[in-house]
Amino acid sequence: xxxxxxxxxxxxxxxxxxxxxxxxxQQSSVDDSxxxxxxxxxxxxxxxxxxxxxxxxxxxxxxQLGALREAMYRGYYMLDALTYGRSHGADAPPPCRxxxxxxxxxxxxxxxxxxxxxAELRRMVDRLGSMIADMKExxxxxxxxxxxxxxxxxxHLLLEKFMFGRQREMxxxxxxxxxxxxSGSSGVGVLPVVGPARIGKSTLVEHVCHDERVRSHFSSILxxxxxxxxxxxxxxxxGDHGLIKHHRDHDAxxxxxxxxxxxxxxxxxxxxxxxxxxxxxxxxxxxGSKIIVTSRSEAAERLGTKHALRLKCLxxxxxxxxxxxxxxxxxxxxEHPKLVAIAMDIxxxxxxxxxxxxxxxxxxxxxxxxxFWLSILQNMRExxxxxxxxxxxxxxxLTLRRKVREHPHDLLQxxxxxxxxxxxxxxxxxxxxxxxxxxxxxxxxxxxTLPEVLSGSPAPRGRFEALAWRSQIPPCYSYLMSCSVQTxxxxxxxxxxxxxLA
Length: 502
What we know:
This protein is an alpha/beta fold and 502 residues long. The protein is built from 18 helices and ten strands. The chain has a six-stranded mixed sheet, covered by helices on one side. A four-stranded antiparallel sheet has the order 7-8-10-9.
């Protein structure tokens, strides 16, 4: 045995040294790739910013711009996960606590120098490099398109006043409106825009209607609701009922085509009779007239003469770019690496909600303190668990299996009761009964705001309304929330606990 012991120790020592050297080389390779990723993202972001300042109409260039933008969001997401996920000091919790719920890009920070992380990072660098090499013709053609109006210097002011993440969808809608109908087609062209509540359907259509190409193409633009189809007088004379939002003077030789925006509430879809009356009305008879239908229901797709445009939540990479820009405002995130790591987890809790992002970021931006941000993250997670405790679904009586409990953000989309988080240390629960939008013409809005209630300000007794968010983007809706602060009833909680133990 003594004869083999030196050989065994020598082999173990050799393996250990080889492992350390390999890890060092891999770590150096990852660090070099991170630096290359940072430089590549700078070049791509310059091109994307310049392209977004031009009025591009070529569909192939728009698709290329969309691919560049998506790659840029994905690259910055990966760079943030790598950089800030390992930048915590000794007094901060480990990165995995903050980065536990994000996708595969975040796992790079847990096994830095690993084969899989380095390979994924190099693939991203190679992808951006190939895109940069293919941008030469794109940049040349870009100079032939006119510039749009100058935008604010501060990025968070830009996001608060301009539509984010829907440029490709906007150009798709404009392309449909400006495209002449075929000679063999009859009737008016219809494009359904379908998506869940508060996903941005009205915002998208409003931006389309404000585009000069659309305004110069149609002689009039009308906005109608499903209720307007019930009244024949509104269809016969929409001008007297305030339905005409834009009218262009025309001479006898100009076309008299109209654009009708039909906004359907909830899941309602007009029946065949009402739909036929709309399509045969006077303002839909002009050659080239079009109809855009916005609805939450997929049933509205049957009204279209073209495939419906489905709006979905932003992908996680784009949503993180949006959230980080709003959360830090004019502050440089690189100066606050701990806050970036915390913000990534808060962003994941928001589930892609625009309203939730604006509410949370208004609180974060006002106090750039790590403990304050951590308290918000902790409260958000606790509120989700408490919501499931108070409003969790009962077991299915047929299968005796408990149904999948929906996340509070999903229930808010359906205007169901949910439990909301608060920074105030109290035994009372903050309940929301639903969120609805108020039109810009509605001047009277609640003085108390939802961020004030969430931050711990005294709330009115009983049921009250709070201003959740006032959008600065046309159509400039105000989003109100009906809510109350209640004292939990002990016997109700006990009954729920017994049902869970049964």
